């Protein structure tokens, strides 16, 4: 009979080891600190107030950029014809050299947009450094001048590639 009682006693002893004594244990419910949201708070979008002096500067610089673009486009049309006539010419020939000079002049014409573009960028940087909200008219003029400058560089690269 002791042989049959031993497994039961051993089982009871092992089960009693899993039972914990009654005591004051912390709750498993979320603590107050765990209920706090870590989401970024929603902040109102700042709106730029109209500034007549800034608008006048932007309009002047935008006109200068537009004039530089028009001047470049006129020169690009003329240089395109010169490059077209020199396409297929031997390197160092009269036509090829004339096209190279025309491309250099076109590159000089391209730099005319750099001054108003740099001024627009300076205005945007100054506003950002001062913590001022974005100014839509300035952002639009800057984006257009950047697009025009990029297009001018691409035009010069295309004409140069046609000459080779």
Quick summary of this structure?
This protein has helices at 2-18, 52-86, 94-110, 114-129, 136-163.
Give structural notes.
The protein is an all-alpha fold. Helix content is 69%, strand content 0%. The protein has five helices and no strands. The chain has helices at residues 2-18, 52-86, 94-110, 114-129, 136-163. α3 packs antiparallel against α5 (136-163) and α4 runs antiparallel to α5. The longest helix is centred in the middle third of the chain and has 35 residues, at 52-86. It is elongated. The mean pLDDT is 88.
List the helices and strands and how they pair.
Elements: H1 2-18, H2 52-86, H3 94-110, H4 114-129, H5 136-163
Helix pairs in contact: 2-3, 2-4, 2-5, 3-5, 4-5
Annotation keywords:
164 residues, mainly alpha, 69% helix, elongated
Strand content: under 5%
Question: Judging from the principal axes of the Cα atoms, what is the shape?
Answer: elongated
The largest pleated sheet is described as:
none
Distance between the termini: 107 Å
Q: Note poorly predicted spans.
A: none
Count all strands and give the number: 0
Helical coverage, percent range: 55-70%
The number of helices is 5
What class, by secondary structure content? mainly alpha
If you compute it from the alpha carbons, what radius of gyration comes out, rounded to the nearest whole angstrom? Answer: 38 Å
Q: What is the succession of H and E elements?
A: HHHHH
Whole-number mean pLDDT: 88
């Amino acid at each position: 009979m002791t042989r049959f009682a031993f497994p039961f006693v051993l089982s009871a002893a092992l089960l009693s080891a899993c039972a914990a004594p009654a005591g004051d244990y912390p709750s498993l419910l979320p603590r107050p600190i765990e209920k706090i949201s870590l989401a970024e708070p929603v902040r109102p979008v700042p709106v730029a107030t109209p500034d007549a002096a800034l608008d006048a500067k932007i309009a002047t610089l935008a006109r200068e950029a537009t004039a530089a673009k028009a001047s470049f486009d006129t020169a690009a049309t003329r240089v395109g014809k010169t490059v077209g006539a020199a396409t297929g010419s031997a390197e160092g020939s009269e036509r090829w050299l004339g096209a190279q000079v025309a491309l250099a002049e076109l590159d000089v014409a391209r730099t005319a947009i750099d001054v108003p573009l740099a001024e627009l960028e300076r205005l945007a940087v100054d506003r950002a450094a001062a913590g001022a909200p974005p100014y839509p008219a300035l952002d639009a003029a800057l984006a257009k001048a950047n697009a025009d400058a990029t297009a001018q560089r691409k035009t010069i690269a295309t004409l140069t590639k046609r000459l080779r």
